[in-house]
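During the no-cost extension, the postdoctoral fellow (Dr. R.K.) reprocessed legacy sequence entries with the updated structure-token encoder. One reprocessed record is reproduced below for audit purposes.
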Amino acid sequence: MRFPALQSRSFVLYESGNVFAQNGQWITRIVIGWVAWELTQSATWVGLLSFFLFAPTIVASPFFGVLNDRVPLKPTLMVSQGIVTLSTLVLYLLHLAGQLGILSLSVVALVIGVAGSCERAARVAIVPRMVPLSALTNAVAIHASNFNIARMLGPVIGGFLIERYGSGPTMLINVLVLLPFLGLVGFLKVNERPSRKAGRKSFFGDFADGFRAAAAHPIIREALLLTCISSITVRGVQEILPSIADGLFGRGAEGLGQMVAAGGAGALVSAVVVAFRHQRKRPGIPLIGLIAVAIGTLSVAGLGLADNWTLAMILVTINGYAGTMIGINMQTTVQLTVDDAVRGRVMSLWMVAGIGFTAVGALLLGFLVDLFGLPATLVGTGLASLALCVALNVANAPSTKRVLAEMEKAAG
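Re-encoded structure tokens follow.
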């Protein structure tokens, strides 16, 4: 069967709700990024606001991961998404009252970032509990397709609404877009892990076990580190697109929406390619994931040298393709390798690597662009990231080969 994950009614309902939630989240990002640029005309502030949206993932996700291994996931999703929706409403009310400045924008972005880190940690933990393990790769790819359709449409919708109606009405429309997901979560059937109160370690004991499980396994360790490095550059560059689309090419909010959508289109193609591929049978990081790391980091360096809008759009599309290919393959590698007893904790670390380090990249790249200029920053960070990823893969190869041999021996 080509799409085995779609045999799960709960997974279908979940992804149907995500159509609204993901588009709403992308519109939120466009609105916050654009308002920050309007208020300051600074790439550093744009990067900082993106940092506020995603940096809480670095600190909070591991704690939410422990929580997700202890409590039911459905209520966690509803509460966290509810806070995101309410915060978006607060953003509109502040705008309506004329009190939306860069500081209040930063506070709301930070609240959305904290709630979003909880929602994302629950999201990656809940998918394997709605589909059989044999359909997991397909489920991750379909979820990524949904995410990247929103990544393609959401920024275009957001840019169009801002250009046509202004930031305030766009915020109000976005509140309505975020609501349907909350209703659908209640209908999900999730295979929650049985409660294990007897012999349970302390919260921080469980927290430490998650770190040890990730650090001790060479395949999980390499997948997480490659995700960290590529998130800083390959995904990080997507977070400073306002300074490229308008600051470099003068294309305004509509151009920003087009550029973000180009990255989303590349990412969507990547997710569809994975969804149609045969299910992975061999453990470990696949070659296509390693190739995507090389393509993605080189696209960042190439974007630093782009001297016209068409070339920049092509490179952003390639960047989106590579970033999603990296994300799907690294996430699937970890999901298929990790012990289910520590899945929530280890997958929360993947969220730190994939989302949290994107925030680090946004802040770092925004600062470096203001300091050294766009070309030098993107060329330098792109090539440096490629060199680090190659060195990591070479250094980790002996341990990976040993573990793969042990896993294959145990399986057969």
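The first helix runs from residue 9 to 40. The chain has a mean pLDDT of 83. The remaining legacy entries will be reprocessed before the final report is submitted.
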